[in-house]
Amino acid sequence: MMPQDEPKFDELYRELILDHYRYPHNRGVLEKPDVDMQQHNPVCGDEIRLTAIIEDGTISQIEFMGQGCSISQASASMLTDRVTGLELTDVDALSVEFRNMLRGDDPDEQMMQDLMALQGVSKYPVRVKCAVLAWDTLQKALKLK
Amino acid sequence: MMPQDEPKFDELYRELILDHYRYPHNRGVLEKPDVDMQQHNPVCGDEIRLTAIIEDGTISQIEFMGQGCSISQASASMLTDRVTGLELTDVDALSVEFRNMLRGDDPDEQMMQDLMALQGVSKYPVRVKCAVLAWDTLQKALKLK
Amino acid sequence: MKDMSVRSDFPIMDRLIHDKPLTYLDSAATSQKPAVVIDALADFYRNNNANVHRGIYTLSEESTLAYETARVKVANFINAGSEEQIIFTRNTTESLNLIAYAWGRDNIKEGDEILITPMEHHSNMIPWMLLCKEIGCKLKYISINEDGTLDLSNLDELISENTKIVSLTHMSNVLGTINPIKQIIEKANKAGALSVIDGAQGAPHLPVDVIDLDVDLYAFSAHKMLGPTGVGVLYGKEKILSAMSPFLGGGEMIDEVYEDRFTTKEAPWKFEAGTPNFADVAAFGVAIDYLDDIGMDNVRQHEIDITQYALDQVRKIDRDITVFGPKNLDIRGGVLAFDFPGVHPHDVAQMMDWDGVQIRAGHHCAQPLMRRLGVSATARASFYIYNNQEDVDRFIDSLKKGGEFFGDASR
Amino acid sequence: MKDMSVRSDFPIMDRLIHDKPLTYLDSAATSQKPAVVIDALADFYRNNNANVHRGIYTLSEESTLAYETARVKVANFINAGSEEQIIFTRNTTESLNLIAYAWGRDNIKEGDEILITPMEHHSNMIPWMLLCKEIGCKLKYISINEDGTLDLSNLDELISENTKIVSLTHMSNVLGTINPIKQIIEKANKAGALSVIDGAQGAPHLPVDVIDLDVDLYAFSAHKMLGPTGVGVLYGKEKILSAMSPFLGGGEMIDEVYEDRFTTKEAPWKFEAGTPNFADVAAFGVAIDYLDDIGMDNVRQHEIDITQYALDQVRKIDRDITVFGPKNLDIRGGVLAFDFPGVHPHDVAQMMDWDGVQIRAGHHCAQPLMRRLGVSATARASFYIYNNQEDVDRFIDSLKKGGEFFGDASR
Ligand SMILES: Cc1ncc(COP(=O)(O)O)c(C=O)c1O
Ligand SMILES: Cc1ncc(COP(=O)(O)O)c(C=O)c1O
Asked: In angstroms, what CA-CA distances link A71 with B7, C67, D339?
């Protein structure tokens, strides 16, 4: 009944996450965005709004606004960094891989890059929802587009 | 959690009970009775019918018919023996004392007499209902009269 | 008879009753528990206890993991497609009531029919009676044959377009009859009726494959299959559970709550209101592991063997003992209800108790069936994996002795 | 603060979390269990396990005795007039749903009003919302003051002749507020409304006397008061229980059953359908004994002391920490929900976990209250008899450390 491979506190809150939380990248709301989507996690009230410009099937610019815990906000900040310049099909593949990692699967480290910092969250099911909130929002936005 | 004072099998089925069961006293149905009441125990289907003649506030004659387990039938047989010739107020008092004994109280042995044979039943709650069925029937009959 | 040699896994088997070895023959009412299950339960409280879901701390994560892992084990045990089709309730009875309340009140209207059988346990009768009383629907019965099997000759007439629910027991807890449920489910499904199986005596004793059965809903109890008391299961097809209204409301089953409205979680959590019985569920997971290790085919074979032996021995007794239910072990489980001429079932049970033999006497929560059998009560011995030939021998010896004791009281 | 010196009775207290001693501060969600309760449960399964009621054999008599004795203990614990007023359910949530279904559907009609408060747990909201959705009755709210107490200034207007049920929590699981329930019950009773108390946080922490309260129905959970999971209680006045329709139907709750109708047993058995959670109920009886030995006045005093100490220590932290709920310990229990500026409650809980401190973060099943407080979630520490000054000190240390860690993330 003992949990295997306990993540360390400092693992979970690696400097990278805390950095993104303290100094978020791409924080803001774009004017005349192609997609604009807001989602929240009813369990904890975390909120994320994403605005993005899509050109030739590629995300050319993306910004986020929101409030919530360090995981949800840092994850959103990291998402914006990572998907800028990506083709939509690659965004899809990345999103699937990210979710699988948080579900406990061994991730493709090459593909994940910085996002590896969030792997420790997979041990805390309640917080998985925080980590995927931004990705849920993006997926929903792109589907509706 | 161990039961205190386990009754012995042969205590429960003292010769007296088995005798009454094998050779019941006052078995039958009176003609033109003053009271005639039938009751059953839905849990096991035991049935008792009592017919009695009441004269001057006294039970002058009583008979029982029925079917069921040894406890219910022997108890009915013993009841008819015991209440014949008793005044109704004494029947009431006896009935209360009998019930109390089966609920686990220390009985007044002088009052109980033969009925003491049924004391062991008090350790088997399911069977208490068998033992009091005849008494329930009598009480109901007298109340309705 | 192959000995399952699991008996020593069950601590209670060392118990003496009136200084005699315990001969436990009431597993149809509730089963005994192996040490691994008892220890898992105690260990959980000693090491991992915390409320499940939503806790962001180690104990709560451990507790949640144990609870949700048990759900996966139960799903695999009955070959459910996914663990999200497994609802934890208190017992079979609550599972069946959940259907009657949550599905019944939305889908049944006046004049509709619910088809059951006369061999149902009260738990698969009263919920429908309550529903019919409220809505004005009708309860109908499949007939029963002399040998304790169902009479399916007119099934096509019984299941009409008015039939909205067909609910029956996988195995009778009195007759031991194993019903041809697959065939009946197929007819019910075809007619557009909801197919419900009371698996209280199915899941513990028979291999169950809900996908193969194609059953809509299947209910059973942990306490009858080596698990703790206080845990029931309701399996349901995904499309049925997701369309079903909630039943009990409260914590755990909601998504968002405002002062005037709320939204619910998805199934199965939608149906689990309030703090679940998570410690017992975790221990039930261990019971499932234990049964998986033995293999349900072996459980079934053992019960065939021991029941056959018991039937043979009873037949040898020089008394006119009536054994209820089918004689063919292909369609009979390890339940042996009988009538001992001249001795009331209560007296049978009580005299056996003196020999350490624990059998049940009464109506076995099946009063309508008792009436059809023409008895007010029966005595019943029932078997499980820990019972062996010696148990049967002690049962037979005690029965003979009691017969002599009450001998001339027979009439 | 007087040490209760009962801590060593609780085996889980030896547990290490991330190599740190366990500091369990989530007793409002569920309590830990003393060894006597865990052992009683395991011993029951090892020695006495059998289905209760109707069994005419030794094990069943023992099991029934343990089950029914627990009922007597619970009755005495809350000063119920008789044990027949104690119904065993799964949890508080089921107890409250039982009322909404069995009493509500018979007695509530369109336009009737049910009065609750904004500090209710979802379990004392959703059952009434389900009822109102079905029947068309209205859910009304008593207002709440800034300090987390109820605003009773207009209670006489709020309780009108349309009010059929007044239901509120004895103590808030978020604010810690102990409500003046006696006064509100009196008004409800006078107006002819059913008075219902959610005692999930009452019975474990405060002396309760249902006769003195004159309350119609009082609900609580064993798992929050040292007992096993899977056991709830519903106390009811005799005249209310006996007039109430059955809720769940099945075995155990019936008297006679025919193929088209049935009669029920008397209360409380009328409301206990199917095999009850008898092993856990028996162990709950031992938990009640344990609390009786300590004395509920002492439990209450200990919680006043430890909460006062915790409030004082939190105040000393050089941060703008908001503690919710009343400051006066006369009307506050051992619950400490707080807002740590700049750090999300989830992060607070997670960083504390690393220090072995187990607190809850989230909406605490009270989303409407969260909205009134203007927060999406809070962190919450809650205390019980096994907590001591050291626990509070570890909690405070961890809180300070986390503040520094997240320090400049504050905005
Ligand atoms: C005030 C209050 N009411 C009701 C409940 C629900 O209790 P349970 O989950 O045991 O049904 C709780 C516990 O979470 C509570 O704190
Ligand atoms: C066939 C059958 N159905 C239903 C039940 C009810 O099970 P439970 O009491 O666990 O709800 C039983 C057990 O007594 C049973 O044998």
From this structure: 67, 25, 18
Q: For D51-62, what is each residue's pLDDT tens digit?
A: 998 788 999 999
B/e letters for C195-227, b = 16+ CB within 10 Å, e = fewer, are bbbbbbbbbbbbbbebeebebbbbbbbbbbbbb
Mean pLDDT rounded to a whole number for chain C: 95
> Is residue C30 classed as helix, strand or coil in its secondary structure?
coil
H helix runs in chain B, sequence order: 9-12, 15-22, 70-83, 88-102, 109-112, 125-144
- Contacts for B36 with CB less than 8 Å, ≥ 6 apart: B49, B50, B51, B141
Closest atom, ligand 2, to C-alpha of C29: 14
List, by residue number, the catalytic residues of C: 365
pLDDT digits (tens, 9 = 90+) for B70-116: 999 999 999 999 999 999 999 999 999 999 999 999 999 999 999 99
* Residue C256 in contact with partner chain A when CB distance is under 8 A: yes
DSSP per-residue letters across D140-152: EE-EE-TTS-EE-
d(CA C317, CA D405): 81
- Encoding tokens for residue C94? 């609550």
Q: Cβ separation of B42 and D55 shorter than 8 Å?
A: no
Q: Which residue has the tokens 């336009």?
A: D111
Token couple for A141: 């936005």
Q: Are D89 and D232 in contact (CB under 8 A)?
A: yes
Which ipTM was obtained for this model? 0.92
Q: What is D48-293's CATH number?
A: 3.40.640.10
> D376–A45: do the CB atoms touch at under 8 Å?
yes
Can you tell me which atom of ligand 1 is nearest the CA of D221? 10
Give CA–CA dist D165/C369, Å, rounded: 42
Residue of B nearest to C365 (CA): B43
For residue C46, the chain A residue with the least C-alpha distance is A1
Q: Where are the domains of chain C?
A: 7-27+295-410, 48-293
- Domain D7-27+295-410, classified CATH 2.102.10.10, yes or no: no
Instruction: Pick the residue from chain A with its C-alpha nearest to C256.
Output: A42
Report which ligand 1 atom has the smallest distance to the Cα of C252.
Answer: 9
- Report CB contact under 8 Å: A44, D370: no
3-state SS assignment for residue D109: coil
A17 by DSSP, 3-state: which? helix
**Tens digits of per-residue pLDDT, A75-111?**
999 999 999 999 999 999 999 999 999 999 999 999 9
Query: Each residue of A25-79: pLDDT tens digit?
Result: 999 999 999 999 999 887 777 899 999 999 999 999 999 999 889 999 999 999 9
Residue D196: beta bridge partners? D167, D217
Between CA D75 and CA D65 the distance in angstroms is 15
Please state the pTM of the whole predicted model. 0.94
Question: Do residues D275 and D230 touch, judged by C-beta distance below 8 A?
Answer: no
- Summarize chain D as % helix, strand, coil (round to 5): 45, 20, 40
**Are B123 and B3 contacting, i.e. CB atoms less than 8 angstroms apart?**
yes
Q: Do C377 and B12 lie within an 8 Å CB cutoff?
A: no
Cβ–Cβ < 8 Å for D274, C91 = yes
Beta bridge partners of C361: C379
Is the shortest distance between the CB of D251 and ligand 2 below 6 Å? yes
Q: Output the CA–CA distances (angstroms, integers) from residue D272 to C92, C405, D249, in the order listed.
A: 13, 38, 8
Element containing residue D196 per DSSP (H, E)? strand D194-198
Domain B3-144 adopts which CATH fold?
Answer: Sufe protein. Chain: A (3.90.1010)
Distances (CA, A) of D162 to D150, D186, D194: 21, 17, 12
Q: Which residues in D lie closer than 8 A to residue B3 (C-beta atoms)? A: 58, 61-62, 65
What pLDDT, in 10s, does the model give residues D352-406?
998 999 999 988 999 999 999 998 889 999 999 999 999 999 999 999 988 887 7
The alpha carbon torsion through C266, C267, C273, C278 (nearest 10 deg) reads -120
